Amino acid sequence: MAVISRFAPSPTGYLHLGHAYSAWLGRRRAGIWRLRLEDIDTARCREEYATAILEDLAWLGLAWDGEVRVQSRHFPDYAAALDRLRERGLLYPCFCTRADIARAQSAPHAAEGLYPGTCKRLGAGGRALRLAAGEPFALRLDMERARRSVTRPLRFFEEGEGWTEAWPERHGDAVLARKDTPTSYHLCAVHDDALQCVSHVIRGEDLRPATHLHVLLQALLGYETPVYVHHRLLTGPDGRRLAKRDQAQTLRGLREAGVQPAEIRTGLERLAA
Ligand code: GLU
Fold first, then answer.
1. How many CB atoms lie within 10 A of CB 20?
2. Is the CB of residue 189 below 6 angstroms from any atom belonging to ligand 1?
3. Which of 7, 16, 19, 38 to mutate to test the pocket of ligand 1 (most atoms within 8 A of CB)?
């Protein structure tokens, strides 16, 4: 069976060598390699970076298959997926501000780092009043209900690790739609991986925790769970992982400094060996 993978950068900056490594691992592995721009955060994403992503991948010689999926053009798709969860009573509106959450989390019995469930405990009347008053709200997944509503085993196959039991509870009642963005990375990634028939998700190990939640969302939405590859992250000379702020390591910067794409590809190959 052909491996179908994808590269899903967010156009919030220029691609750096870490992105190139991820893209190159995917391209060399996949029979079909798709490109997706994860640009739902319209305040942070910029058209100029989206254009640069396409140019830099082409310069590096990494050609994607088919159309580029631009998430910001598909908000209605994500709203429909959210509706399916909402109709089953798996979502609830959360009106909390960051300050509310921080305050509740400092309570003696609060589970560390997780949403304390303040808005889950609102009565139907209180909730309706706040909605009617037009108070902004996020949508959270009721983790307990969601977990109870799935019957299939929650696990994923991770190359190099084998079968892993998913533990979505580590995310608590995760936000699936934000106050300012009517969806979330988790929901869009899971939806689009299914839509793009992705068989192998190849991405950095910083996203391994997200996979645990993605496996639950796949079960809730009736999607298959792909195989996962979580590759190591590249670090800079200071030992810290490369980030968009490290200008010197951007593909653009390297290109301007006269580095040839073949040299970069050879370097990436050596890293993967
Ligand atoms: N858009 C994410 C990022 O740029 C990648 C998400 C994924 O590969 O699932 O970090």
1. 26
2. yes
3. 38
- Does residue 60 belong to any structural domain of this protein? yes
Cβ–ligand 1 distance for 226 under 6 Å, the answer: no
**Token pair belonging to 211:** 């996979």
Are 165 and 189 within one domain? yes
User: Is 84 part of a structural domain of the chain?
Assistant: no
Domain-embedded: residue 78: no
The 10s digit of each residue's pLDDT in 125-170 is: 999 999 999 999 999 999 999 999 999 999 999 999 999 999 999 9
Whole-number Å distance, alpha carbon 7 to ligand 1 midpoint, is 8
Which region, left, alpha or beta, applies to residue 234 given φ > 0 means left and ψ of -120 to 50 means alpha?
beta
Residue 197 lies in domain: 90-233
pLDDT digits (tens, 9 = 90+) for 89-108: 999 999 999 888 888 877 76
Half-sphere CA count of 191, side-chain side, radius 13 A: 23
Rounded-to-integer distance, Cα 209 and Cα 87, Å: 27
Tell me the residue length of the chain: 273
Residues 151 and 53 grouped into a single domain: no
Same domain, 216 and 121: yes
Give the Å distance between the CA of 10 and the centre of ligand 1.
Answer: 7
**The pTM is what?**
0.94
